[in-house]
Amino acid sequence: MTAALDIKGLAKTYGDNVAVDHVHLTVPQGSFYGLVGQNGAGKTTTLSMAVGLLRPDAGTASIFGADVWADPAKAKQLVGVLPDGMALPERLTGREMLTYLGLLRGLSKDVVAERAGELLSVLELDGAEKTLVIEYSTGMRKKIGLATALLHAPRLLVLDEPFEAVDPVSAATIKGILREFVAGGGSIVLSSHVMALVEQLCDHVGVIDKGRVAAAGTLDEVRGAATLEDRFVELVGAATTATKGLSWL
Ligand SMILES: Nc1ncnc2c1ncn2[C@@H]1O[C@H](COP(=O)(O)OP(=O)(O)OP(=O)(O)O)[C@@H](O)[C@H]1O
């Protein structure tokens, strides 16, 4: 079966900093895939290249077989993306933004109106639908970003830190939406630092360390008999140096 997302040898270097070092990852269709790694490990850079937001130095990425760089129109129809630090049209209201992006996606006015209303309501942004995006809180920005990723009913969702700054009630709602999306045949890749969340939601996991894949596979294959957190610390070799230094504090 064609993979939902197939990343082959993606690489990116900034100056002499190797951000992503020939990463290979396969996200099977119907999987809920968690990408974990320390700050600066290369998750955002990998995901940005995988969805066509950042041109790689080397490697390819394809979404349901459509090459993201050779066949971008086809690939981008199939994917909904929540990028890290998404630049939003600040002077539009939430509804205007969804309408604008929905029409750009080629949806009819009626379909956009119906879906925008439902998304705003389900994500509990209906009270803020007339508020300009510039006035949104960080968590609200995440939620409107998620709404734009879902609007065209993609087959794959690529979400960079979707739960960052989101309150627990909204997080529960979003988890429900994502679980339903996968139950309905969709595929998801999300990045997160929260191991418990990845363990709770994902059936596959990839561990990125210093731009390379340290482990990848089903959740059970990667964590073995340990918790994901213990396995992660073991894999990335993070020394618990918290008590070293700061003697002045
Ligand atoms: N635009 C850029 N210019 C220069 N260096 C960059 C740029 N973007 C990322 N980097 C560097 O690339 C490396 C990987 O960064 P990246 O943002 O992909 O990591 P990450 O795993 O998403 O981190 P975090 O969990 O903190 O979001 C880091 O060393 C970072 O400093």
TrEMBL record:
One GO cellular component term noted in the UniProt record for this chain: plasma membrane
Location of the protein in the cell: Cell membrane
Residues annotated as domain ABC transporter: 5-235
CDD domains assigned to the protein according to its UniProt record, in alphabetical order: ABC_DR_subfamily_A
MF GO annotations: ATP binding; ATP hydrolysis activity
Bilayer topology annotation: Peripheral membrane protein
Highest taxon listed in the record's lineage: Bacteria
Keywords on record: Antibiotic resistance, ATP-binding, Nucleotide-binding, Transport
Protein name stated in the entry: ABC transporter ATP-binding protein
Organism: Nonomuraea terrae
Lineage of origin: Bacteria, Bacillati, Actinomycetota, Actinomycetes, Streptosporangiales
